[in-house]
Amino acid sequence: MKKFAFPLGRVLDFREMQTRIEESKLEQLYGELRGIEASEAVLRRQRAESEQDVLASGGAPGLELAALDSFRQFTAAEHRRLENLRRGCRERIAAQIQLVAAKRRAVRLLERLREQRRSVWSQELNRELDAQAEEAFLAQWNRERK
């Protein structure tokens, strides 16, 4: 009997490649989210350090207080901007997760089909081997009878 061949093997390979590409895009989005969160942590730390520096110096002159207030306004605006970026990134992550799940389902479908075909092939192979063994036994039995 001929060797097992899955006619949709190239399609399965292509779907697996597509899945890996989409998983890679998802990892990039997670990296982007980590970058946004890191920027936000740096911003919070800088704001806290600035406030602490002004308060630690005792009586801060009006110019330093004005600069601190401007920095607070800047950090608040930057925090809102980063929050919008984070929200957008999370939405893209959710959409990408759905896409990756769909790609994985398509791969699993083809893998199950391949295994079903392999099972049918294996059963046919076993039947053919049984038939050949039976023929060989009968041929030997007939020779021995003569």
Notable features of this structure?
146 residues, mainly alpha, Helix Hairpins, 2 helices
- Tally of alpha and pi helices: 2
CATH topology value of one domain: Helix Hairpins
CATH architecture annotation of one domain:
Orthogonal Bundle
Helix content: over 70%
- How far apart the termini lie comes to 31 Å
Give a quick account of the main beta sheet: strands, pairing sense, barrel closure.
none
Radius of gyration: 34 Å
| Low-pLDDT runs | none
Give a short overview:
The chain has 2 helices and no strands. It is mainly α and 146 residues long.
Structure description:
The protein is an all-alpha fold and 146 residues long. The chain has a domain at 9-106: Helix Hairpins (Orthogonal Bundle), CATH 1.10.287. Helix content is 90%, strand content 0%. It is built from two helices and no strands. The protein has helices spanning 9-56, 62-145. The chain is rod-shaped, with a radius of gyration of 34 Å. The two termini are 31 Å apart. The mean pLDDT is 93.
